Amino acid sequence: MRGWRWLAPAVLVLLAVTAWPVGRGVWLSLSSYSLTNPEDRTFAGLDNYLDILSSRTWWLAVSATLVIVLVAVVLQLLIGLAFAAALRRLTILWPVTRILVLVPFALLAVVSTVVWRDAVTTGFASEWFRLGEVGPFGSLVGVTIGEIWRGTGITTVILLAGLLRVPTSLMASAVADGATGWQRFRRVVLPAMGPAIAVAATYRSLDTFRILEGPLLADESGASVRTAPLIVWDTTFSSFELGLGAAMSIVLLVIAGLLGLLMVQLLRVRRVV
Fold first, then answer.
1. pTM value?
2. What is the pLDDT of residues 8-66, one digit of tens each?
3. Cα 21 to the chain's mean position, in Å?
4. Taking a C-beta distance cutoff of 8 angstroms, is the pair 268, 198 a contact?
5. Which residues pair with 31 in a beta bridge?
6. H or E element: which one contains 43?
7. How far apart are CA 41 and CA 32, in angstroms?
């Protein structure tokens, strides 16, 4: 109960700043409302949700978004872990490297998207690997690479914080016991880094799931990289179907919540008895 006393103010503030927008979105999603004909607003009930849940285009977009999330997060964790191990040894240059690894994350997502989209479609990557006409798949690869490049720095910093929690005495004991490098990594390093890995994976999964800038710019170039946030954007700001767009936003919010719960369950840190 004492813990709830400290958490109650934060929970109340969180509810105050989120309950109204979400509630407004739910109410709007239950109506048929278009800016092209604002006077013709009618109560639609669950019709918008039924249209979304039965739409093949919607579920293909959700699937494409989840594929980007899976590939981007896995590669960010692997690359970030390698960078964190290297940065741990750079004790003298640590203040400088700490800033350098965060530079991509500090840049606008639009910048990284444009750079990597052009690199894969018409730039250096296309020339080096002789990709030729890459089409929509190449643009999807460029969008994914841009997201990986942007998020690897912050992932590295989170994983480095977990890596610094590994006791040197425990590592020395493992070496003295004759443990191999893989055994030390699996039985000493990974358990100590468990919370950091869980935080990095969950945070980057939810952040990547809302990816919009990359698919939006790739879509402008003629390559149809249709993700769920992009369909919400097109429905709301291109077709001006506010009721249907609000329903899509609520469905996307529910999927993101389920994704977060899944990540928490999969990455739950358990004590080893």
1. 0.78
2. 888 888 877 888 888 888 888 888 888 777 777 788 888 889 989 998 889 988 998 89
3. 22
4. yes
5. 43
6. strand 42-43
7. 6
Angstrom distance (rounded) from CA 169 to CA 269: 22
Cβ neighbours, 10 Å, residue 152: 23
Which structure tokens are listed for 153? 């720095």
Alpha carbon dihedral 139, 145, 148, 149, in 10-degree steps, equals: -120
* 122 burial via Cβ count (<10 Å: 0-12, 13-18, 19+): middle
N-term to C-term CA, the chain? 28
- The pLDDT tens digits of the residues spanning 59-95 come to 988 998 898 889 889 999 999 888 888 887 776 666 6
**Nearest CA to 71 among 190, 194, 208?**
208
Kindly list the structural domains of the chain, giving each domain's residue range(s) and its CATH number in brackets, ordered by start: 64-239+259-266 (1.10.3720.10)
User: What single DSSP character describes residue 34?
Assistant: B
